[in-house]
Amino acid sequence: MKVSIYRYNPDTDREPTMKEYDVDTQGKDLMVLDVLNLVKEMDPSLGFRRSCREGVCGSDGMNINGKNGLACITSLSSVAPGVKEGKKALVLRPLPGLPVVRDLVVDMTMFYNQYEKVQPYLQNSTPAPAIERLQSPEERAKLDGLYECILCACCSTSCPSFWWNPDKFLGPAALLQGYRFLADSRDTATEERLARLDDPFSLFRCHGIMNCVSVCPKGLNPTRAIGHIRSMLLERGI
Amino acid sequence: MVTRVTSVTSLGRNGLYDWLIQRVSAVVIGVYFIGMLAYLIAQPNLDYGTWKAFIGSVPMQIATTLLVLSVAAHTWVGLWGVTTDYLTSLTFGKSATGVRLVVQMVIALLLLVYVLWGLVTIWGGA
């Protein structure tokens, strides 16, 4: 099958190019990461990140035939009709909107900076109990669909609002994490957290186009989380 | 250290306020449009005299004033979003702030002219 991969080495290349490879998949419905490993055997200079190869670590987020996803859990047959059969090329590019370090490896600093801004850790000003802070099953259930995020950046780098203002708009991943702590019954910093989100950019740059929902490899819904934060801001502000 | 994101050119300098204004103004525009459509459908043989009496009545003058103000506010919030998305250092480099400010001021002045012109037309009694 034909594989077209974005190649760029800032030290030696003047501009990025798409390089074509012919890979023999023996007709199997491989994962995209398997194909990348086959290419890597042919061309060891190819750079990409991967670690757990089972959709848990979030290292191999990339743009696969125009849609962000994790290479390790995206099968060829799910990319587009004809890709597995070799009728259509597999096109791999780095996550959009972030600076390219090399080939499919991007610099995630901007993404992590925004993640840091939501202070993604439990804050509780009350004295710590002897054993642990308890939650009812109902309170715990509110964290479902939020805590599972693996920070692969597929969502934020598919969001035009994040592309245009990656320093001001927090992006869907950070906002999902922000809501994960706003929704936590053990966290007491709700007011401080909300006070940091009511400017015109941090949260309100979300226009609800739901690209984040459509690409999330874990099936999470950042748009809904952003809606919940907006409701909390409304209740606080009116 | 978390720094607050601020913007002095957004309508309310506050995301929630702008968001709310955009929704409320959209409702005003929507209700006015549907009401006007219903009126026009209910009056198949509309003549100038009937139209002038209708649009010149005080309730319609107030409604049209709300419409003009809503369109202006809605346009400002929307175009402010467009200018801060596309007229940035990504597209214009170091001159981005100047470009954005000029475009925003042109939009603001046009909207101001539009509002004043609208008010004169609605309440001028011509």
TrEMBL record, chain A:
Give the species this sequence originates from.
Alloalcanivorax xenomutans
E.C. code: 1.3.5.1
Annotated function: Two distinct, membrane-bound, FAD-containing enzymes are responsible for the catalysis of fumarate and succinate interconversion; the fumarate reductase is used in anaerobic growth, and the succinate dehydrogenase is used in aerobic growth.
What's the catalysed reaction? a quinone + succinate = fumarate + a quinol
Its needed co-factors are:
[3Fe-4S] cluster; [2Fe-2S] cluster; [4Fe-4S] cluster
PANTHER family per the record?
Answer: SUCCINATE DEHYDROGENASE [UBIQUINONE] IRON-SULFUR SUBUNIT, MITOCHONDRIAL (PTHR11921:SF29), SUCCINATE DEHYDROGENASE IRON-SULFUR PROTEIN (PTHR11921)
Cell inner membrane recorded as keyword = no
Name the record gives this protein: Succinate dehydrogenase iron-sulfur subunit
Pathway listed for it is: Carbohydrate metabolism; tricarboxylic acid cycle; fumarate from succinate (bacterial route): step 1/1
From TrEMBL, chain B:
Q: Which UniProt keywords are given for this protein, alphabetically ordered?
A: Cell inner membrane, Cell membrane, Electron transport, Heme, Iron, Membrane, Metal-binding, Transmembrane, Transmembrane helix, Transport, Tricarboxylic acid cycle
Q: Does the keyword Oxidoreductase apply?
A: no
User: What GO molecular function annotation could you give as one example from this UniProt entry?
Assistant: heme binding
Q: How does it sit in the membrane?
A: Multi-pass membrane protein
Q: SUPFAM superfamilies, from UniProt?
A: Fumarate reductase respiratory complex transmembrane subunits
Chain residues that bind a ubiquinone: Y86
Which compartments does it reside in? Answer: Cell inner membrane; Membrane
Q: In which pathway does it act?
A: Carbohydrate metabolism; tricarboxylic acid cycle
Residue ranges spanning the membrane: these are 20-41, 62-82, 102-123
- Could you give the cofactor binding note from the entry? The heme is bound between the two transmembrane subunits.
Per the record, the domain of life is Bacteria
Signal sequence, renumbered to the chain? none
Cofactor(s) recorded in Swiss-Prot or TrEMBL: heme
Chain positions recorded as heme binding sites: H74
Q: Is this entry keyworded Transmembrane helix?
A: yes
Q: Which NCBIfam families match?
A: succ_dehyd_anc
Q: What does this protein do?
A: Membrane-anchoring subunit of succinate dehydrogenase (SDH).
- Protein name as annotated: Succinate dehydrogenase hydrophobic membrane anchor subunit
Top-level taxonomy: Bacteria, Pseudomonadati, Pseudomonadota, Gammaproteobacteria, Oceanospirillales
- UniProt lists the gene as sdhD
